[in-house]
Every structure is written in C-alpha cells, then in structure tokens.
Design goal:
single chain, elongated, 2 helices, mainly beta, 9-stranded mixed sheet, 4-stranded mixed sheet, 213 residues, 2 domains, 16 strands, Immunoglobulin-like
Length: 213
C-alpha cells in the first residue's frame, strides 16, 4: 500500500483555494515543490478568510499552523505587533492633513485612499513610514491595521513649503485585538494615519471616521 502523506493531500487543497479565492492566501508552501515537505506547514490567510482557515484546520488539524490576519487560528493568539496605549504626537499646526472621500472598506479587507498633506512651515519636510490604522474610540488603542508589507512604508515623500501633496495610504482592517475577532467588525470606526518626519519623532493625524461593512 502506498502511504499518502499530509503534503500529498494538502497540496491540491492549496491549489484549489488559491485558484478559487486568490486573495485569501497570503503565505503558503509552494505546491510545485515536493522535496522536504514535512508538517507542520505554516499558512497565512487574509483576515476575512477565517472560514478557509476553519476548513484547513478541520481537514489537517495540527499538521498545519494557520495564521489569519495577525492571529493564530484557532487560538486567536496575536502574532502581530503588540497593542499599546502609547500614541505618537498629534501633527503640529504647520502640517495639515485631510482625506476628502468617504471611506468604506469590507471587514478584513484593505482600502487604498489618498491623504492630502499641506506643509505650512518654512522648510521642506520629508515623510516616511506612512501607515493607516483603525483605533478604538474608547481607548485610542490601535486595534486594526494592514497585515503584511506596505510599499508606501519604503517611500519618502518630500513636501516643500506651502505645497500640498497627495500621499497614498493603504488602510487595513485585520484585527489586532482578539476580542474583536480576526477582522474589525462592521460599524463606524475612527482611523488615524501615522508617519515619521525625517530627523523628528512619529506623528498622527486627528481621527477620521470610516465605515466598515
């Protein structure tokens, strides 16, 4: 009798999930490579794909290590950055930031928006590490963010005096609070944009409300 390994069963399951829901899988073993495939297999899924994680867990149990957004599945143990009450300072008066459009994003998904930033100061400012975050309205803790790399984090934005620049923001709604579940639940939530200014500390915008659907 030929023994079927966990990898023999998992490989077609990953291919099927990848083809049917290509955005659900964020990191997984390459199905094209068979050599050295020994469980447990680490698989990362989008925050909205907890149902896919449940199916994989049902069929493969402890042979797969599952992460949904920032949290392990099914334990809900946080694997992302720690939640903290320490917030960056609010923007100084000479820097004005606004987002004109109404923002709607599906629970567990990401949204791309533009932040308009105006430099009213006398000197050029250089921004980097621009991040959109969901915050708890009661505690001001960061409770939602983008799970994964954000390309804008690696780009510097130079804003001259009295110049207004449109800066792309990727807002993620993967939950950093296990009590909220794997994704920020539907409702009206405040968000903030945080970034570093060259040779200075980190800053945050005043809250901007979004609708999670």
């Amino acid at each position: 009798m030929v023994r079927v390994s966990t990898w023999d069963d998992l490989k077609p399951a990953l291919v099927l999930l990848r083809d049917a829901r290509p955005q659900a899988l964020r990191a997984y073993p390459d199905p094209r490579v068979d050599e050295g495939r020994v469980p447990p297999f680490h698989i990362e899924l989008a925050a909205w794909a907890a149902d896919a994680a449940a199916d994989l867990h049902k069929h493969f149990g402890n042979d797969v290590e599952l992460q949904v957004g920032f949290q392990q599945y099914p334990s809900g143990t946080l694997r992302g950055p720690a939640i903290t009450n320490v917030q960056p300072r609010l923007l100084p008066d000479e820097i004005e930031a606004s987002i004109e459009e109404d923002i709607e994003v599906q629970s567990g998904h990401d949204a791309s928006v533009d932040m308009h930033l105006t430099n009213h100061g006398p000197e050029q400012i250089v921004l980097h590490t621009v991040i959109g975050q969901v915050i708890d309205p009661a505690t001001n803790r960061v409770v939602g963010a983008l799970a994964g790399m954000q390309s804008a984090m690696l780009v510097m934005f130079r804003v001259e005096p009295e110049e207004t620049m449109s800066i792309p923001i990727v807002l993620g709604t993967a939950s950093l609070d296990p009590q909220l579940g794997y994704a920020i639940p539907p409702g009206r939530w405040p968000m903030q944009v945080t970034f570093s200014i060259e040779n200075q500390e980190r800053y945050r915008t005043p809250p901007i409300f979004i609708t999670v659907t």
